[in-house]
Structures are given as structure tokens and as C-alpha cells.
Design goal:
about 75% helix; mainly alpha; about 90 residues; elongated; single chain
Amino acid sequence: METLEKDVKSKMKETNPEKREGQVATALEEQTAKIPSDVFLWASLGSMAVSLVLKVSKRDEASLFVGQWAPAFLLLGIYNKLVKQLGHDSEDL
């Protein structure tokens, strides 16, 4: 088991020795960094409000569906904040 772990680690080092982001991640991060962090917070709060309205309207399945968007919006907001603070590559700072 130990040799397998060493083998995997050595292959990972060979795959991306410079530890740089790929083209897709870099392009995505450049675009998401343009979005204000408030957008994700308001989207999360909005999905909770819509979920509440749907729940009161006795549309339980739709309420659950929309209510589950809130954590995803908050997570995207965290990602957005990290990209703005740390950049996509430490060498580019």
C-alpha cells in the first residue's frame, strides 16, 4: 500500500510540475472575479425567500428544489472571494 501511495504521488508531480491552473480554470476565474461578491449572497437569500413562498403555497417539491440552491450560491461566493484575494496562480500575484 505504501509503494502505491508513493507511485501515485510521483505521477502527480510529473503531471503538473509547475502547479499551474489549466486554461479553462484560468479563463473561468478571470470571468468570475468580475462578479461582485454581493451577487452570490443576494442569490442565496433570494433562493431562500422563493423557497419559503413556494412552501407557503404548498408546492413542497419546488420549495425543496429551489431551497437547495442557497448552499451552492454561498459556495460560489466563497470561490469568487478566494479568486479575488489569491488569484488563479500564486506566481501571477
